[in-house]
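Suppose you are handed a protein chain with no further information: no name, no annotation, nothing but its sequence. What can you learn? This example shows the usual starting point.
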Amino acid sequence: MSQWLTLCSVEQILPGCGVCALAGEQQVALFRPRADEHVFALSNIDPFAQASVLSRGIIAEHQGELWVASPLKKQHFRLTDGLCMEDESHSITAYPTRVRDGNVQINL
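A reasonable first move is to predict its three-dimensional structure. Written in structure tokens, the prediction is:
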């Protein structure tokens, strides 16, 4: 059974940036790469540094895919599925997202 949880207004995420949100007891990094309403959600925990920092990472495009670079050790995580570019064994959780009535929702 899917459970959609409203986290924030899409307007609270500046285009090209990420923010951290609390979804239950989990920290989630929300990214809005462009000025449209498309939002991605990943775990906020950097598995290499064991720190809650991915929402502060830099969004980049590589070979037609969008990634976030960790601000600590610079590993890249794909926004669509959390795959780690440098080491697939350290990939992170990606969450389905949608925007309803201007609000960002994720599916836990």
